[in-house]
Write a structure and sequence with these properties.
heterodimer, A: mainly alpha, B: alpha/beta, Rossmann fold, 2 domains, six-stranded mixed β-sheet, four-stranded antiparallel β-sheet, 14 strands, elongated, binds adenosine-5'-diphosphate, binds magnesium ion
């Protein structure tokens, strides 16, 4: 546990110190929230919610923020590889699993904080607190998204030697996961083939879970969302741990 | 039990044999040098001994533990300062040390005391709360050495510890390495391509070239075993002098360089007068003449037929630097 804590602590310290990164990575979610939210608010009519598109996408944007931060946190390992710091950890008498878990928890924590910042900011533009339990449900799903995608980031980083493939990952992993998740549109109104695709996206269940917590309604029952996302998270952690075990420096 | 035993260790990187069937032992309490040009296989050897690289074949024991199936005990026995920096620049000096202490599960009180002691030792106590990214190369190196010692390893690997440091810092580090070895009886294995460093520090050393160990002995023995001296002459006509020297039977060898000539011979003190006489007879003016005992540079030249090239080193360092910069 000490080792996991040491690595978690390092991640948190680095995160809290990089003010520009914290602020920088709030930019895109806020942009989406304001432009999409207010731009489409009066045009879009969400079934069951009326003209409250802003309220509808807040959970989606929170999820987006957690997604981006967590994948980047996982991918950080490539920098550790390049800057040599990974060697320091790998040559110590500790298991790779401990390192990986520490990294995953650290990434998930920072991602959670980023999501929380967006959530708090969105209170000012129309989100309203329904009940405390709902918040806790949203938090749980934010954490799950954080764990799931930090682990995915670690899995990807374990396979990469440098940041050259980063653009590829941005375009073919992060954006599709976000775009297909129902973060910015209701999945029930989609043509059935597209709905199937969204149901294959793990983030969909995260978004649905947060949406249930914050709005009290969702297309997918929160129990199912939790079960599906929880299982996928477990699989990601196992995959990440497996690939990280074989990392070479 | 020796500190390190290496038996037929080999590492191949898709077709390229970086370390080629090497075997030797390093005794406890030694400073052992691995001297060789860039690309000789020094880092690869150390990486295998430190369990971060898997050998293609062969065996090695570090502190009695097998590097392949007893990695954890090997790791507990060693400290290592990598050739390339391995600090977290976004953390302070103290935090880097603290992280290391946690990784090695050093109890809190002991850890704090030791971090302070070690930072004092390497002269960084007053900078302990500064981010590493504000440190110079020498300071980073010193911090890495302090970090490598925090868990009191019995064996310390230093991969090119003074690469790219200014002479003053280098000197300082050398003294420090000696102090560690004598004071704490830590076995130290260092790699270098600086002759002077090997000469000054090492009790025993191996010369490695193209993955093979080509000589292994004490530095003074290696030089002694050459068995001859070297005369360096600068003259008005080096070519002519060179060809006329061919007639002297006691000359072992001559090498022409840009503007001077080196002559390998035994009993140089006795023969130097003959050489001067010969050049006078041929109407060649001698501009300067010096006699020296073989240096490690000469030993290296003898075994490999080439000198360790400094420029090789500097281009590689430049590339590394450029890569670093690009990463930012
Ligand atoms: N990871 C690697 N993949 C492929 N080749 C490598 C790798 N590491 C080292 N080499 C090659 O192995 C040889 C020995 O390298 P190295 O051990 O770093 O030499 P030294 O430390 O003596 O300068 C070099 O030719 C180098 O290019
Ligand atoms: Mg090297």
């Amino acid at each position: 546990m000490d080792i996991v804590y040491a690595i978690w602590l390092r991640n948190i310290k680095r995160y809290l110190r990089s003010k520009s990164r914290i602020i920088g990575s709030l930019g895109m979610p806020l942009f989406f929230l304001l432009i999409l939210g207010f731009g489409l608010n009066s045009v879009v009519d969400i079934p069951g919610m009326g003209h409250n598109y802003v309220g509808f996408i807040i959970p989606g944007i929170v999820a987006m923020s957690v997604l981006f931060t967590s994948i980047f946190s996982g991918i950080q390992i490539i920098w550790d590889k390049q800057f040599g710091f990974l060697k320091e950890t790998l040559v110590a008498p500790v298991s790779r699993l401990e390192i990986m878990i520490g990294q995953t928890l650290g990434g998930a924590t920072t991602a959670f904080i980023q999501g929380l910042i967006i959530l708090v900011l969105s209170l000012f533009i129309g989100a309203n607190i329904t009940n405390l339990a709902g918040f806790l449900i949203a938090f749980l799903f934010m954490l799950l998204i954080g764990l799931c995608f930090t682990a995915l980031g670690i899995a990807i980083a374990s396979k990469m030697d440098d940041m050259h493939g980063f653009q590829l990952i941005m375009n073919f992993v992060i954006f599709p996961i976000f775009g297909l998740s129902g973060a910015i549109f209701p999945i029930d109104s989609l043509p059935s083939w597209l709905k199937t695709v969204t149901l294959l996206d793990p983030l969909t269940y995260g978004v649905e879970g947060i949406r249930y917590g914050l709005l009290g309604t969702s297309h997918i029952s929160p129990l199912i969302s939790g079960l599906v996302l929880g299982s996928i998270t477990l699989v990601m952690i196992i995959l990440g741990a497996y690939l990280f075990r074989k990392v070479k420096v | 039990m020796p500190a390190i035993t290496i038996e037929n260790l080999t590492k191949e990187f898709n077709g390229l044999t970086a370390v080629d069937n090497i075997s030797f032992t390093i005794e406890k309490g030694e400073i052992f040098g691995l001297l060789g040009p860039n690309g000789a296989g020094k880092t690869t050897t150390i990486s295998m001994l430190a369990t971060i690289l898997k050998p293609t074949s062969g065996k090695a024991f570090v502190n009695g533990f097998n590097i392949i199936n007893n990695q954890d005990d090997v790791r507990k026995s060693i400290g290592i300062v990598f050739q390339d920096q391995s600090l977290d620049e976004e953390l302070t000096a103290y935090e880097n040390m603290d992280f290391h202490g946690r990784l090695y599960r050093i109890p809190k009180e002991i850890k704090q005391k030791k971090i302070h002691k070690l930072l004092q030792l390497v002269g960084l106590e007053d900078r302990k709360n500064d981010l590493v990214k504000t440190f110079s190369g020498g300071m980073r190196r010193r911090l890495e050495i302090a970090r490598g010692l925090l868990h009191e390893p019995q064996i310390l690997f230093l991969d090119e510890p003074t690469l790219g440091l200014d002479p003053q810092t280098r000197n300082h580090l050398w003294k420090y390495i000696q102090k560690l070895n004598e004071g704490k009886n830590i076995t130290i294995i260092l790699t270098t391509h600086y002759m002077e460093e090997a000469d000054r520090l090492c009790h025993n050393m191996a010369i490695i070239d193209k993955g093979k160990i080509i000589a292994l002995n004490k530095p003074e023995k290696l030089k002694e075993e050459m068995g001859w001296d070297i005369i360096t002459i600068e003259s008005s006509d080096n070519d002519k002098l060179n060809s006329s020297l061919k007639s002297l039977p006691w000359i072992k060898n001559t090498h022409k360089h840009n503007n001077h000539l080196t002559i390998d011979l035994q009993n140089s003190e006795k023969h130097v007068a003959d050489i001067v006489r010969l050049s006078e007879k041929n109407k060649i003016d001698i501009l300067s003449l010096s006699i020296h005992k073989p240096t490690l540079e000469d030993v290296f030249l003898h075994f490999t037929g080439k000198t360790i090239r400094e420029e090789e080193a500097s281009t590689k360092d430049n590339m590394r630097l450029r890569r670093r910069m690009w990463r930012r």
